[in-house]
Amino acid sequence: MSDSHTAIETVDREGRCVIDVSALPTSVYGSRSPVWWGNTLLMLTESMSVGLCVAAYFYVRQNFASWPPPNPNAQPPLFHPTPDLPLPSAELGVMLASCALMYWIDRAARALDATRAKLGLWTVFAIVLVLIVCRFYEFRAVHFRWNDNAYASIVWTLLGLHLTYLLVAAGEFFILAAWLCCASLDEHHAHDINLTGIYWYWTVAVWALLYAVIYLGARML
Amino acid sequence: MTGTGVTLASVSIDLQVHDTYFVVAHFHYVLIGGAVFPLFGAFYYWFPKWTGRLLDSRLGWINVALTFVGFHLTFWPMHALGLGGMTRRRYTYPAETNWGSLNALATVGAFLMGLGVLTFILNVLWSRKRGRLAGGNPWDADTLEWATTSPPPAWGFDQIPTCYGRAPMWENPPDAATVTGLTLRKRQVLCTTLLDAAPDHRYDLAGESIWPLLTAVSVAGMLLLGGIFNPWWAVIFLGVMALALFGWFWTSTAARNEPNVFRRGISQPKGDSDER
What we know:
The complex is a heterodimer.
Chain A: E1 8-11, E2 17-20, H1 34-61, H2 86-110, H3 114-140, H4 150-182, H5 187-220
Antiparallel strand pairs in A: 1-2
Helix pairs in contact in A: 1-4, 1-5, 2-3, 2-5, 3-4, 4-5
Chain B: H1 2-8, H2 11-17, H3 21-51, H4 57-83, H5 100-130, E1 160-161, H6 168-171, E2 178-180, E3 188-192, E4 199-204, H7 211-228, H8 232-257
């Protein structure tokens, strides 16, 4: 923080001791900001939900002789119906790459470069839309309906839980990009973009975990 | 409710007193002694800050005496009744059980407590209009709410006070500094550092808005309509809530840049009119 952005102890016109805070900034990054705490605690509680669902996945594993359980109703019957790997792997790669894009957007927003931030936000919004569409093909690639057995239920729950995070991210990217189309980029919204970025990194990290559990777990457990 | 569980969670005690009057006696003892008495205390303590007038002291003593005696008279005999075998949720019993006298005692106690609460209500009604004027800090208390007038203005303080310790009303020097430099043109508050509470930055709050209410209504719609009648309501109101959040985001920024939503109807000082 530079000296011009500090509180000054001074004396007002009546000679009373005052602390003049008019030079303090109105938008700050990181743990100094109340909104940062709101965002962080949201991620904390949602991480708890993810953790509980993952724990449920491993608990359900105990009740089955083979994992995933065979699907005798399929035509032809599937004896080891592992969920298909290509699509979620591609998703993981796209998400990790989008983190670099998000970092680039964050840098542009901090520099108050509205044009680059807007371009980046629309791009990442389009990427999330594609990911959401892919998610529906992933449900199909589980080879079970959600109510066929406990394995199917917990896998659908994990995929669906992460789908809600994607939907929230899509909403955030959309509203910020739309805002930049209608108004100029100020420090408050640069901060909003920064927080959305943190949320997106978290969403990607959760997907990396769920990818390991759902797709590698079905092959290794 | 934790307090009610400590004793009764012990299996050996629970085996003896389960579903007896002891349970009723015990949890009322804990709840009234642990929560209701402090609530009354808090009411006497902050009533002057709230209304500008003190509650009457003599009526207060009558109130506490009646409630205290009535409380013990009501619930103490019920412990003994429970240990003596009287089950809970019963409205009558044979005379041979010899529970009559202790139950009569509890009834007298309940009426005494009722009189105590009645005294309290009369005290509030009377003191609201005719009680002694309190002034800013009638108790010589140490915390900051007593630094402003009673009742306080809608904006709390004319000058934002500073703290020189945990008991600012006792520790602050007479010429303690106040904070200046926040704008009056919008709802701006001062954020401090987490541990040292040094001024850190100014934080703009949203202005008046209908969107938070719509968000809350959609949450209620999700849980009540979706939880009881049809799960699709949850999906529908999730969409409504998303729209409400978008509207909230969009308009709060507009309100943040809107001048003078704060202290409406109050004349602004001349000169550097957008600061206090």
